[in-house]
Amino acid sequence: xxxxxxxxxxxxxxxxxxxxxxxxxxxxxxxxxxxxxxxxxxxxxxxxxxxxxxxxxxxxxxxxxxxxxxxxxxxxxxxxxxxxxxxxxxxxxxxxxxxxxxxxxxxxxxxxxxxxxxxxxxxxxxxxxxxxxxxxxxxxxxxxxxxxxxxxxxxxxxxxxxxxxxxxxxxxxxxxxxxxxxxxxxxxxxxxxxxxxxxxxxxxxxxxxxxxxxxxxxxxxxxxxxxxxxxxxxxxxxxxxxxxxxxxxxxxxxxxxxxxxxxxxxxxxxxxxxxxxxxxxxxxxxxxxxxxxxxxxxxxxxxxxxxxxxxxxxxxxxxxxxxxxxxxxxxxxxxxxxxxxxxxxxxxxxxxxxxxxxxxxxxxxxxxxxxxxxxxxxxxxxxxxxxxxxxxxxxxxxxxxxxxxxxxxxxxxxxxxxxxxxxxxxxxxxxxxxxxxxxxxxxxxxxxxxxxxxxxxxxxxxxxxxxxxxxxxxxxxxxxxxxxxxxxxxxxxxxxxxxxxxxxxxxxxxxxxxxxxxxxxxxxxxxxxxxxxxxxxxxxxxxxxxxx
Amino acid sequence: xxxxxxxxxxxxxxxxxxxxxxxxxxxxxxxxxxxxxxxxxxxxxxxxxxxxxxxxxxxxxxxxxxxxxxxxxxxxxxxxxxxxxxxxxxxxxxxxxxxxxxxxxxxxxxxxxxxxxxxxxxxxxxxxxxxxxxxxxxxxxxxxxxxxxxxxxxxxxxxxxxxxxxxxxxxxxxxxxxxxxxxxxxxxxxxxxxxxxxxxxxxxxxxxxxxxxxxxxxxxxxxxxxxxxxxxxxxxxxxxxxxxxxxxxxxxxxxxxxxxxxxxxxxxxxxxxxxxxxxxxxxxxxxxxxxxxxxxxxxxxxxxxxxxxxxxxxxxxxxxxxxxxxxxxxxxxxxxxxxxxxxxxxxxxxxxxxxxxxxxxxxxxxxxxxxxxxxxxxxxxxxxxxxxxxxxxxxxxxxxxxxxxxxxxxxxxxxxxxxxxxxxxxxxxxxxxxxxxxxxxxxxxxxxxxxxxxxxxxxxxxxxxxxxxxxxxxxxxxxxxxxxxxxxxxxxxxxxxxxxxx
Lengths: 548, 502
Hints:
The structure holds 2 protein chains of 2 kinds. By secondary structure, chain A is mainly alpha-helical. In chain A, 74% of the residues lie in helices and 3% in strands. Chain A has helices at residues 7-28, 33-58, 82-105, 112-131, 135-153, 160-191, 196-203, 211-214, 222-241, 249-256, 259-284, 301-325, 330-347, 358-393, 404-407, 409-423, 429-443, 447-473, 486-508, 510-523, 525-544, and strands at residues 2-4, 62-66, 77-80, 295-296, 299-300. In chain A, strands 1-2-3 form a 3-stranded mixed sheet. In chain A, strand 4 (295-296) and strand 5 (299-300) form a beta hairpin. Chain A is globular, with a radius of gyration of 22 Å. The two termini of chain A are 12 Å apart. Chain B contains 20 helices and no strands. Chain B is globular and about 65 Å long. Chain B starts with a helix and ends in a 10-residue tail after the last helix. The chains are: A mainly alpha, B mainly alpha. Chain A binds chain B through residues 420, 424-427, 431, 434-435, 438-439, 442-443, 447, 450-451, 454-455, 457-459, 461-462, 465, 469, 472-475, 507-509, 512, and chain B through 108, 111-112, 115, 119, 122-123, 126-127, 129, 134, 137-138, 141-142, 145-146, 149-150, 153-154, 156-157, 160-161, 165-166, 169, 186, 190.
């Protein structure tokens, strides 16, 4: 079923509007609390909107919103199926928790207005990327996201390392987004359209009523241009996700950004790259496409790319876990942990190849989505919690936090819980998400990946246990007066309780069924047809004047 | 909604455990003991009502006994050794989490309890905050925890593929082999290897000596007495799903290797806790050997040998680890070459050590004797089926048992005689009494339970055998009583021990 809901379009616009309002407030009042209120209101509104959309989505609907009433391939259209419904919900909910935390954090920042602006613009970019149904709009939103991220990384502009991190991120990021732009150019050359549903219809040879009427014609070699565009776009997407050859910028950028921004980066922004890759290979270039039948090394072109991506994921994950074990800086340790987890998610992409049956592929997708959720919650919480502690300690060194678990028990227990969730201890959510990934890899007979997944978790255990050991076992270095941490502790406790509840609900089978049936829907040919048909339907209604 | 008795059983155990841990933090000793007793009652009620099977009940009883003794021992030990009072909650939690692993009725609770036990195990190992304990803890994480987790997750994945996601998590663990199809060989290899890492079997054994010797003594007692049994418990649960030839032969070879390697390495250690740690590797090797041999041949006697070995080893090894803690508190050293004649100042501890070592080297009528007797007997019974293999097995097993005698006696030299000079020590004996009475419970259980073994492992007992056992027990008790009095006298004797009077 197709649902037309303006909420989808509203989400990025509300974020962007908030971002514009924030610096204007500065002219009217000097009160700092107003920014917290503004950002909180926006986060609550967008969260409720995304919940509403998610509700439509799990009922099996596809939510479409055409901007300006233009029929789809001509105008920008926002399309939400299960895949981006989940990612959108992850993004808005994590951002809601980050904003609650920001109430506490803004008192440590000299000028919260710009931080508010940048955070909101970043979220506008993220939600735009996630909800959009148009590749060119994806590129624009990626730019919004990237530019605001450079700003966030360089927020403490008096620190030379922040500037260095921002410059290296900005330089390579600008290159990567330009690559994405060239990718879209090649895509347009090959297919004559940039609408995801239209691309999918053309690549998979599904006939449409209205989309084909408004769509352009191709000029050039379809297979070659598609291959080039895939290569170029993947460069940008793996850059955002922080996959192996493109991961060098990530640790310093995540480390130097203000804590709420780090949490947003680790929880949400790197999921955009993951989402982009999934969208490319689940909706656009599927395994049942008749066009992409070029063979490389005896394998289908798509399979070669997916195996390469998963191999890169394996390398990334392994590197992340190993380097994480030797870090002394808390935030740097956490950013390597992020790298490791994104690598794990990419490892499971090997289950989406054409050799693997639909059932296993949907388990893999469910695992990827669920792991994205638990990782987003756990990693953001670690950034928030340890960021709060290191703000108090005045140092990001892990050794400076020794014994803080005894001084601030509430927040430290929450930190320990989410570290254990990331490590994968039952009954926390992280165990079941890793387990689902493992299950998919085992069912697809990819034993090397499956065993590597557990070994990598084991190596990353060194890093997580180092945190817990420092907090709880070691003695405090000196007596410090206790500072107020109630808001930060509250957020951390909420997230860790959420992780427990998610884990139990998943073990009970409720959540597992939701994820599995949603993934099955998304990955199957019928789901793909539904995606295209709903956009086609909207196009028909708007462009050809057919009655609904 | 009516509450089923099974649900009550599942819910009551975490509640009691929570009360126990809270009372442990609040230092209410009486409540702790009551909770342990209630847990025992729940265990047997559950057994009578059929919620848990024989294996679970046996393993969890051992866990409870060793848990309560180690926890009460640590009350005194923590004050004497560290001057603080924050070790016993950790020990309580550790023992309870392992108890929960054994009693867990379904796979999801098993996994949760397993992970809890592993985390708590890490924190007991790093209890003494030093760089080397942290290294030992990390080695424990990488070599013991990761393979075991891999085994568990593979097991879960196999069950999920076989009977579905929710069913795999909630179906009763005791019926798992009936519900689930047989494992493919590569999966079975991963699972058994993973669990055997927890039991410190040869290629993945090297985490154990550091971890067990650097942990506080009550923690070592639990680590060695019951935690390594978690791996064996896991193997025991999945072994009906495993194919018979390849895996069995592989692990028979590996367990023989670890038995002999453990024995040889135990002989050359000079640290008493490291002797005991390597001895654990040897003994788990023997246990896995009998289990795998039983799986390959189907000989029931070997299974009995496995169970008796397991009970015996749990009791004497945890008693000995507690004993090593007592020695450390009294003398501030664990070096065998610097210890000797401790029986003069520590009569209770020496009796306990004597009993445990008797069980370790297998003197009748201890459980250790029964275990080794059963093991050798069943290998002899097995011999006609495969002459060459049987003789090789017999020779290797005997070698391992002889090694056990050597290091067992070496351990005893800290009480009677020494390898070098005598140390003069002045320690009040009240500390020794307080500490040693707990280990004495375990080591004497190794003796007292010996007649009860046939009923514990469900084997009929012929009257002749019963009388013979009873006679042997009586004789042993009288000899021990006499020895004890000798030792008491030795305390007041002149310290002349032969040779020239200094």
